């Protein structure tokens, strides 16, 4: 961008924060999709695709006019507009989002208000699908959106937080400056990372880059990528603490796994003693188990004998009870016979 000054032509650097510009370009595409969908909802004669180009032109003009008006009013001393511009200068994406919301509200028809109230999820899905369609069909090219975003950002960034305001009369000096400007685009230097960003964010990116090689958290001599650190520390790191292989026989020492060979060679005799003691305990346990097994076998035999005796006793008791029952039945029959005889004698006398 060039501007005319008293001593001739001068050029501004105007490099911008790429992260902010990226966010603004996404907002622009979303705003166009939303306005196109909301302005044609329920209209059988129009579709979002049929109005997108016209709506894009309206949206660009609306944002530029609103931005210029805000800057102009703040310059002439309007306190409210000056305060708004200062807020916009520190939160440009929020400012742009508000502008787009205002434009979308103007484009909504009656049916879109109702349908948006009744089915917000359906509306959002339509907007998302139309955004993807516009990207595929290049309805609003990325470079064009970047140019619009940069124009708005440079206009409102009064504190020069997100763009470079430096001016140069000579083009070679401008070129030299841009090669060193804090807003120049740089690539991450960490092997495997493909991220690009403004130089002002080098430290921020470096602090979170998953491909950054860092000293091992467990202080081994290796440098490990941030994204591999957890796996390294939990598996192959020589400083990972492990238990002695002879832990189960008595050696409860824990040490870095890189010291395994040294530990085993130094404590060879101790480990052999642990093994011998464990073997002795195991033999004693085996003998004890054998003795217990023999006792269980004897107990089982006694239980079987006892069970046999119990069966015999129960059989005798049952036979005795059966005999008593038979005798009782015989006595009852005898008594019944006597009763019948007495009844017959009584009847014959009365007859």
UniProtKB/TrEMBL annotation:
InterPro entries: Znf_RING/FYVE/PHD (IPR013083), Znf_TRAF (IPR001293). The gene is LOC101765307. This is TRAF-type domain-containing protein. Residues 205-256 form the TRAF-type domain. The lineage of its organism: Eukaryota, Viridiplantae, Streptophyta, Embryophyta, Tracheophyta. Gene3D superfamilies: Zinc/RING finger domain, C3HC4 (zinc finger) (3.30.40.10). Pfam families: zf-TRAF (PF02176). The keyword Oxidoreductase does not apply. It comes from Setaria italica. A zinc finger (TRAF-type) spans 205-256.
């Amino acid at each position: 961008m060039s501007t005319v000054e008293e001593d001739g032509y001068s050029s501004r650097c105007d490099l911008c924060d790429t992260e902010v510009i990226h966010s603004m370009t996404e907002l622009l595409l979303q705003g166009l999709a939303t306005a196109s969908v909301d302005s044609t909802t329920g209209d059988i004669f129009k579709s979002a695709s049929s109005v997108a180009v016209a709506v894009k032109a309206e949206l660009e003009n609306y944002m530029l006019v609103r931005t210029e008006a805000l800057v102009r009013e703040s310059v002439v001393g309007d306190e409210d507009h000056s305060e708004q511009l200062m807020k916009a200068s520190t939160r440009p994406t929020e400012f742009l989002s508000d502008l787009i919301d205002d434009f979308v509200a103007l484009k909504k028809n009656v049916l879109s208000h109702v349908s948006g109230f009744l089915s917000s999820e359906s509306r959002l899905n339509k907007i998302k699908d139309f955004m993807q369609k516009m990207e595929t069909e290049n309805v609003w090219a990325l470079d064009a959106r970047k140019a619009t975003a940069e124009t708005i950002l440079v206009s409102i960034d009064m504190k020069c937080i997100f763009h470079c305001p430096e001016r140069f009369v000579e083009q070679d000096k401008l070129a030299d400056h841009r090669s060193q400007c804090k807003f120049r685009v740089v690539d991450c230097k960490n092997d495997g990372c493909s991220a690009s960003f403004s130089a002002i964010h080098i430290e921020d990116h470096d602090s979170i880059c998953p491909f950054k090689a860092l000293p091992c958290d467990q202080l081994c001599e290796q440098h490990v990528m941030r994204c591999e650190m957890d796996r390294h520390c939990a598996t192959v790191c020589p400083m990972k603490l492990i238990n002695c292989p002879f832990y189960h026989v008595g050696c409860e020492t824990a040490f870095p796994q890189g010291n395994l060979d040294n530990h085993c060679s130094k404590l060879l005799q101790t480990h052999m003693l642990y093994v011998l003691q464990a073997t002795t305990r195991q033999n004693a346990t085996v003998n004890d188990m054998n003795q217990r097994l023999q006792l269980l076998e004897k107990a089982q035999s006694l239980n079987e004998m006892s069970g046999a005796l119990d069966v015999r006793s129960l059989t005798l008791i049952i036979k005795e009870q059966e005999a008593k029952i038979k005798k009782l039945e015989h006595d009852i029959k005898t008594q019944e016979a006597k009763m019948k005889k007495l009844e017959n004698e009584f009847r014959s006398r009365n007859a």
